[in-house]
């Protein structure tokens, strides 16, 4: 019994994910029963054409993006927390979200700030995703250069944080000089959004997340070894330098792509790994990685469902909802007596 | 026939800062024998950690080489080295969610496949390590909920489960109470003997090391490494190398370190062991000489001085 319980919990988390998915898809300005959705998806018979339109082209991609983003952010967060041995590390500590923000800010704000002809109100999501990816890659590349130079992981962490604030400062300068219209667009982006992606983009996001998870699977044992610190890890034949490269690559792909497509989504990456540790009561990454992925996906689906304000046409920005859910979690963690020990 | 599992040949060790090589240890040669617990002693900053890093293959010597099982340590891959060498470090931070059993199982990391799944032989090795350190009863307990001494044993068990020929421990008895210190060192000596391992312990605990170690390595600034039976080093006086300067020396008859200032003028009559403690107390109180003689008697304990009687050394000193 004791031995099976992690698997039992994983199955329970999978069921939670499926239920959250159904709930997420059925809620919205028109509520559609899960029965109808399931029969529609599996048989292709919809009671109304408009419902097919809503489900297939709007709600399904959004729900899938929520799952993918939840998985990507939670797994990046877990990697960062273990590698840096810091319970407050998250997917964005190496400046990835600021980098993506910079890319998008240049796209949306720079034109307006420098008085050039702007892209107008209609910036298509592809352009935003590409700008975000370029920005994130740029920061990641610079961080990698630093990682190549310095061998100390704490130095890398500090450099990453400093990079993040420097890039945020550039964004502030751009915002200061840009016009109201462009500023509003950028602010909307920075609040995060799971919707508005077309199927092609969902597939690409899925593919990138899949590729980003491969280095994680390849180094599960190394992450377990890192729990005892770099010196012990080395003595057990683990190569921390190799792990660092794999981690930068993996979090860059996971957190970078999610941020490029959905904007910066706060708290999921920090809070979910802690939730997984608390529920599974283990530090074994063979369970923590799948557990974080399942909880991350479910939590983001639920946050999105809350944000749709059931029964109304209004939606709250996803970043506001995750922060409202995430902040109490992080606060209650910090207030726990043995927080640093629980880690 | 004694077998050396680690041999150091004319090692020059140090660190490179920019383009300057700063040498800390010069032309060091040594042999670490299997079946023995060797204690490495020396003052702080003399280069013990540097030497240990070289033995673990984490520091490339400027000159000379370290041989592990007659092969240069630099030719081993990380994984192969991990199968030969295991360590216990002074790492204060351990994941609290882990149970002792899981911690010990981590020692099997170099032996398992990429997921780290334990096979039967791994489980056997973990059980053997737990029973060798006598902590089977702790297997399901979480690391945050056991005592410092038990945690140290768990870390030793982890190193044992790694199943190398050589184990290196960095101050395994720091922060432990007297009983635990003895227990840990006896345990290590027993493991070295029964399992034929080479165990190197870096320690500052001279008295306990004297009691338990099979061999001493004394490291001192600017001198070659002195290796020998602890008893031989005491008899030859070489143990005093640990105590440079003029203030302290190692007392051969008492087996402990004492202040050198010995021209104290007390006349104490009575049992010798009691007299020793009284002169110790007087010395600490800064009293160097007394005019009259002191008389001590046991059962009931009594100090007689200048016609007065005291039942405690403290009362006596206060009255002076």
Automatic annotation (TrEMBL), chain A:
InterPro entries: ABC_BtuC-like, ABC_transptr_permease_BtuC. Keywords: Cell membrane, Membrane, Transmembrane, Transmembrane helix, Transport. It is found in: Cell membrane. It is a multi-pass membrane protein. The chain crosses the membrane at residues 63-80, 92-114, 126-148, 155-177, 197-218, 245-275, 287-306, 318-335. Pfam families: FecCD. It comes from the Bacteria. Belongs to the binding-protein-dependent transport system permease family. FecCD subfamily. This is Iron complex transport system permease protein. It comes from Algoriphagus winogradskyi.
TrEMBL record, chain B:
SUPFAM superfamilies: P-loop containing nucleoside triphosphate hydrolases. Residues 1-246 form the ABC transporter domain. InterPro entries: AAA+_ATPase (IPR003593), ABC_transporter-like_ATP-bd (IPR003439), Metal_Ion_Import_ABC (IPR050153), P-loop_NTPase (IPR027417). Keywords: ATP-binding, Nucleotide-binding, Transport. Pfam families: ABC_tran. SMART domains: AAA (SM00382). The keyword Nucleotide-binding applies. GO terms for molecular function: ATP binding. This is Iron complex transport system ATP-binding protein. It comes from Algoriphagus winogradskyi.
């Amino acid at each position: 019994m004791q031995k099976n319980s992690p698997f039992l919990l994983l199955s329970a988390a999978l069921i939670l994910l499926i239920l959250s998915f159904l709930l997420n898809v059925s809620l919205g300005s028109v509520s559609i029963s899960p029965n109808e959705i399931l029969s529609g998806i599996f048989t292709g018979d919809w009671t109304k054409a408009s419902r097919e339109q809503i489900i297939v082209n709007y709600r399904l991609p959004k729900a899938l993006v929520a799952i993918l983003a939840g998985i990507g952010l939670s797994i990046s967060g877990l990697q960062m927390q273990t590698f840096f041995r810091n319970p407050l590390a998250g997917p964005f500590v190496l400046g990835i979200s600021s980098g993506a923000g910079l890319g998008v800010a240049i796209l949306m704000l720079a034109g307006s700030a420098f008085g050039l002809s702007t892209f107008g109100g209609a910036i298509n999501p592809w352009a935003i995703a590409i700008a975000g990816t370029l920005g994130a890659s740029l920061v990641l590349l610079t961080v990698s250069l630093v990682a190549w130079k310095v061998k100390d992981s704490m130095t890398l962490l500090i450099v990453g944080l400093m990079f993040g604030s420097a890039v945020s400062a550039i964004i502030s300068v751009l915002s200061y000089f840009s016009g109201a219209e462009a500023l509003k667009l950028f602010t909307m982006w920075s609040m995060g959004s799971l919707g508005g992606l077309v199927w092609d983009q969902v597939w690409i996001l899925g593919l990138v997340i899949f590729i980003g998870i491969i280095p994680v699977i390849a180094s599960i044992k190394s992450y377990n070894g890192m729990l005892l610190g770099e010196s012990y890890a080395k003595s057990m034949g683990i190569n921390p330098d190799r792990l660092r490269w794999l981690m930068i690559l993996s979090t860059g792909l996971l957190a970078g792509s999610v941020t490029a497509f959905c904007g910066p989504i706060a708290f999921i990456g920090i809070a979910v790994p802690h939730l997984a540790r608390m529920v599974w009561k283990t530090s074994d990454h063979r369970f923590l990685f799948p557990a974080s992925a399942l909880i991350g996906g479910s939590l983001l689906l639920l946050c999105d469902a809350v944000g749709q304000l059931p029964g109304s046409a209004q939606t709250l920005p996803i970043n506001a909802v995750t922060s409202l859910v995430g902040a109490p979690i992080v606060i209650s963690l910090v207030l726990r007596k043995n927080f640093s020990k629980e880690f | 026939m004694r077998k050396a599992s680690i041999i150091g040949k004319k090692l020059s060790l140090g660190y490179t800062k920019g383009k300057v090589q700063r040498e800390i240890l010069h032309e060091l040669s040594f042999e670490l024998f299997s079946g023995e617990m060797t204690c490495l002693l020396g003052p702080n900053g003399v280069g013990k950690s540097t030497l240990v890093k070289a033995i673990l293959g984490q520091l490339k010597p400027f000159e000379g080489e370290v041989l592990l099982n007659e092969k240069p340590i630099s030719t081993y891959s990380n994984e192969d080295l991990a199968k030969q060498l295991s360590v216990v470090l002074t790492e204060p931070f351990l994941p609290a969610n882990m149970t002792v059993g899981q911690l010990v199982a981590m020692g099997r990391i170099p032996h398992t496949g990429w997921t780290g799944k334990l096979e039967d032989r791994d489980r056997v090795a973990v059980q053997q390590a737990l029973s060798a350190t006598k902590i089977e009863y702790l297997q399901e307990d979480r690391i945050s909920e056991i005592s410092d001494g038990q945690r140290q044993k768990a870390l030793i068990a982890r190193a044992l489960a790694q199943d190398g020929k050589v184990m290196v421990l960095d101050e395994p008895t720091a922060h432990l109470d007297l009983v635990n210190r003895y227990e840990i060192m006896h345990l290590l000596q027993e493991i070295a003997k029964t399992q034929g391992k080479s165990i190197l312990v870096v320690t500052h605990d001279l008295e306990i090391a004297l009691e338990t170690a099979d061999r001493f390595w004394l490291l001192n600034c600017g001198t070659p490494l002195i290796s020998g039976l602890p008893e031989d080093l005491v008899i030859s006086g070489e143990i005093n190398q640990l105590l440079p300067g003029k203030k302290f020396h190692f007392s051969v008859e008492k087996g402990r370190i004492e202040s050198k200032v010995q021209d104290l003028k007390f006349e104490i009559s009575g049992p010798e062991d009691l007299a020793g403690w009284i002169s110790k107390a007087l010395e600490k109180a800064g009293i160097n000489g007394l005019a009259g003689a002191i008389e001590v008697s046991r059962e009931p304990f009594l100090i007689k001085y200048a016609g007065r009687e005291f039942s405690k050394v403290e009362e006596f000193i206060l009255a002076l």
